[in-house]
Give the backbone structure.
Amino acid sequence: MAKTLSILFVSSEVYPFAKTGGLADVSYSLPLALRELGHDIRVMAPKYGSISERKNRIHEINRLRDIPIPVGENTALATVKSSSINNPRSKVQAYITTNTNYFDANKGFYADPSTGVDYEDNDERFVFFNRSVIQTCLLLGWVPDIIHCNDWQTGILPALLRLQHNDVFAKTKIIFTIHNFGNQGDFNLESINRIGFHESHADALSHKEKVNFMKAGIHFSDCITTVSPTYAKEVLTDQKLSNGLSDVLNRRAEKMLGIAHGVDLNTWNPKIDPLITKKYDKSSIEDKAPNKETVLERFGLPIHTDKNVPLIAMVTRINEQKGIQLILDAAKDLMSQDIQLVMLGEGDHSFYPQLKALTKKYPEKFALKIEFDDELAHLMEAGADMFLMPSLYEPCGLNQQYSLVYGTVPIVRKTGGLADTVRDYNPENGEGTGFLFSDYSAKSMIQAISRALELYKNPEAWQALVINGMNEDHSWGRAARQYSELYRALMKDTF
Ligand code: ADP
């Protein structure tokens, strides 16, 4: 049997402790799936003010109390606590960094929830967290084979490991997974001192006159992954999609790989989901109906008993990336169709007034909830007939995969992970799992929705399409094996 590896998986969001989006789901499911492959994997994350220690069974460990952490010229204390993430088959140790000033005092993770404005000291906050990761390894006497970093919040960790702690971690391989190039952790150049680096490293740590944590991660890691094969290709060539980092990536292109996520079938599975009104599987698709009723009730939309009106759902961060503008552009056309549309999300406040205005204009057809509600997200996946993701770009996307598992037909823009995970319906042979459109335009989106609505009128053909999606294997096993192989290749220096 292949040797098991020791892996530290570092992330700013790990479900169920903290979640704003897919990163949290991945940071929960992938470590558990890797544990099931036999690896000694542990996760580490910060404890924000909104996380309850009691509810999450987070407790102190004597050895990791009041650890002095240098932040620029100052020192702050980290107390690293212990918890675990679990599924019915396995358990993974979690280390949670606590500090009142940087984390506990803030309810938001990266931005003030009341204004949506980023915290001013995000550079210090995450450098503090990244340094606490290193100190934890040193105090535990644990030098992992692999340190797996995720997104800009951990982008400075590879730089710290290689520039300041390589005596201990020379043999540790560092992998940096980029879930989204949209946010890179960029700060003004004075940040170099604040985060405790010498100016001679400014070139490696900065990009376009800014300290850039993501660039640092790309530069100092042994391997970079993004979260789908298509997104990996797109960001190498499209400066817009890489948010200006294509050149930096191209310098490391041979060390780059795209691996699409899977679905955690312990959490997202209509057969066993405790959060939905009625459980079902592909032999009882009619049991989606009670879930649909609950969704309509929760959103205050009328339940039509005389006709079958398709329900389209969106569970989404509300921002430019997720294509909210297309919904606004297409609203008139969309609302002229015989549909109901429910949207759950939060994010960019500037979209709120226009979306709210639509709910007033079309009170029977469009309903919106601006909040984060995990239970409702599950219900919507179960109750909706179609799931809409008109993303401007989509690194991987989980919701379209959840939709396939829940027999809810995805209508998605052909970009990034959406292009990799949804197959366009072909009326000639009935193949495919959803509806795709290419142009980022209201017209193109409406065309795809119209194709879906047309097929919906034919219950038999629709059901066959639903079953196509439910028959696919979207479990984490494939992705976990790919990561496992990558780790081994890194250890053998063959990647
Ligand atoms: P991203 O990571 O870009 O936000 P994904 O589709 O990969 O998009 O993952 C989003 C995850 O976050 C899904 O699990 C989705 O259900 C969840 N989610 C997003 N917004 C909300 C919300 N307002 N309430 C509940 N869950 C949400």
In short: Residues 33 and 488 are 16 Å apart (CA to CA). Residues 122-140 form the longest helix (19 residues). The two ends are 21 Å apart (CA to CA).
